[in-house]
Amino acid sequence: MVGLHRRVMAGIDFKRLSNGDVLATCIVSSGYYDDKDVGKGGSDDDVLIYCGEGGDPKNPCGNKVAADQKLRGANLALKRSMERKLPVRVVRGFRTSSQERVISTYTYDGLYLVEKHWEVRGDNGYRVFKFQLRRIPGQPALSEVKRSRLEQAPLQYRCVDPDVSGGMERHPIRAMNAVNDTRPIGFSYISRLRYPSWYDPRPPAGCGCISGCAESSACACAAKNGGSFAYGVDGMLLETRPLVYECGPSCGCPRSCRNRVSQSGVKVQLQVFNAGSRGWGVRSPNRIAAGAFVCEYVGEVITEREAGKRSNDEYLFDVGRNYGGGEACEEDSCFTIDAAEYGNVGRFINHSCSPNLYAQNVLFDHDDRRVPHVMLFALADIAAYEELAYDYNYRVDGVRDEDGELRRKYCYCGTFRCSGRMY
User: Fold this and answer.
1) In what residue span(s) does the Post-SET domain sit (predicted)?
2) pLDDT of 288-322, one tens digit each?
3) Which of 139, 236, 252, 276 would be 110's cystine partner, CB 3.0–4.6 Å?
């Protein structure tokens, strides 16, 4: 609900007056901390005991900095609202869980008055502020909202396709749908890039390592990467780069080499699922660590000129201008990956203005920097069943049709950084 609570992370929203004083405007009782209702029924259901901000990470409020809570800022704002008998908006959070995920629902519960505050000592002896708030009578009862909206059963996903890849990946990629029984159709699954018949990429010169490229100083492929490997010994991408060279078919090192991370296909379990307004999306039933390889964006490799003729431009990934520092190229020497008719699980990964994946250019089976492999890596730790997304890197008002008219595509990622439009 836009405008009720402005602060992204903090539970107490307040405003600073021109005279320097502060007043609380809204609190969020998320259900994660030691906020609680006093009674089990009757008028006590309208009383909320709320924890202050700041303090000891091991106290009941679950705060992060080990110290006494201070009567300043947000905490002082609640006290000032109590002294002036001014109402405070309260937003309630409720959590329900299914077999696959926890769903948090937030709803506006109405206006409360702060009746009193006091101090307690946490388990480690740090000071914690408690505030007692009472709901102003005459507002719709929260219990009615709970019954009608908050305690409804969470989405139940059903498997509508046991393996979208048709056995072409190491792990089956199930299609899950909680809305209806439809499944992903209209394309042919491929696990490797599909090059045009006239394009004949040549294998690169390889390294002579036979021990898994243990020493970067002695590895010719590491030299291509500036003298160091892009991956740690655990296979995690250490940092994003314009281009990463992996060991290839001409190298003497084994398949277990630390510099062959992304070329062996999908290694994590992935699911395609109905993501509502975003269409089909991709998630994993397992946690994915930061820097881990997720999947390649696979499709047909076509020229930029050919891409302009395709009627469906929803699955185009332009790689033709991403090589060698971004030099200019002609339409027939710039390339695009089109996953509309032929593609892998990467075609279902949605855009986000706050992505958790990064598209990394990688070469291993040839040295043509105009046509790198697009490998998707985790930007940060990704929780189980969190939707996977990367930034499509469109520019608002930067896409035009054949007649030069601006085209618009709206964004539904729902993140707090969402611009509302992809282009």
Assistant:
1) 407-423
2) 999 999 999 999 999 988 988 888 888 999 885 65
3) 139
Among all chains, which residue has been given the structure tokens 């709901």?
135
Residue with tokens 């307690």: 120
Q: Do the beta carbons of residue 339 and residue 297 sit within 8 Å? A: yes
Structure tokens at 264: 């062996």
CA quadruple 306, 307, 312, 317: dihedral positive or negative? Answer: positive
Q: Which DSSP string corresponds to 375-397?
A: EEEESS-B-TTPPBEE-----TT
d(CA 58, CA 65): 9
Continuous segment of H or E residues that includes residue 112: strand 102-121
Reading the block at residue 14, the tokens are: 């307040």
- Beta-bridge partner residues of 28: 91
* DSSP symbols for 310-336: -S--TTEEE-TTSSTTT----TTT-EE
Least confident of 211-215, 238-242, 361-365: 211-215
Q: Which residues contact 226 (CB under 8 A, 6 or more apart)?
A: none
**Euclidean distance between CA atoms 151 and 132, whole angstroms:** 25
Q: What is the pLDDT of residues 368-388, one digit of tens each?
A: 999 999 999 999 889 889 999
Question: Do the beta carbons of residue 12 and residue 74 sit within 8 Å?
Answer: yes
**Local structure of 80: helix, strand or coil:** helix
* Euclidean distance between CA atoms 321 and 361, whole angstroms: 12
Strands 174-177 and 342-343, by their bridges, are unpaired
Name the token pair of 341: 């008719």
Cα distance between residue 373 and residue 403, in whole Å = 32
Contact 184, 280 (CB under 8 A): yes
CA-only gyration radius of the chain, Å: 27
Distances (CA, A) of 422 to 176, 347, 355, 405, 407: 26, 17, 13, 16, 10
Q: Residue 306 carries which DSSP code?
A: H
